[in-house]
Amino acid sequence: MQLALFPLSAHLLPGGVMPLRIFEPRYLRMIAEAQTREFALCMLDPRQPDALRNMYPIATRVRIIDFDRLPDGLLGIKVQGVERLRIRDLWQEGDGLRVCDAQPLPPWQGGRLPQDQRNLAQALREVFSDYPEYAALYHEPAWDDACWVAQRWIEVLPIPAEQKQWLMACEDYRPALRLLSNLLVTSH
């Protein structure tokens, strides 16, 4: 599948919601073409010397769920993650918009959060409480869904991008839950 790319310094996974400010002409075009050519959020890789290819390989296809004109006159959109992708090839169009050929990755299957990992949902609730603007993005948090909890943690956890990419490339969310459980035990 061919998609436009919107590079960021953050990750978004399926089910995740993120507000974006759009102002560069190439990204305004990307939004205008979103009905005919979907786009994906990807993360910049500052270690990559080739400026055209300075992106990590795992991205997330998104859909626009809301848009508005911001007080500063810029276009504000809200996107939701749809599916994880592996970027296979990428190129740049005349206005600088990067486009990729990507392969969808199998979706992680949701499941009930195990009893011994309920503390992960509780800790995430505390993050939501500390950051109400982030919490406001999620009208119906899925606190009992292990996949949803793992994905939100991957998005907000301050770990290196390489580690997030490794977790995003996994076949399911279990490695993320193991890492999170270990981190939570270590921090308390």
Automatic annotation (TrEMBL):
PANTHER family in alphabetical order: ATP-DEPENDENT PROTEASE LA (LON) DOMAIN PROTEIN (PTHR46732)
For this protein's source organism, the top of the classification is: Bacteria, Pseudomonadati, Pseudomonadota, Gammaproteobacteria, Aeromonadales
Species assigned in the record = Aeromonas bivalvium
* Tree of life domain: Bacteria
Gene3D superfamilies per record: BPP1347 like domain, LON domain-like
User: What InterPro entries does the database record attribute to this sequence?
Assistant: Lon_prtase_N, Lon_prtase_N_sf, PUA-like_sf
Ranges for domain Lon N-terminal come to 1-188
Q: Which PROSITE patterns match?
A: LON_N
Name of the molecule in the record: LON peptidase substrate-binding domain-containing protein
Q: Which residues form a coiled coil?
A: none
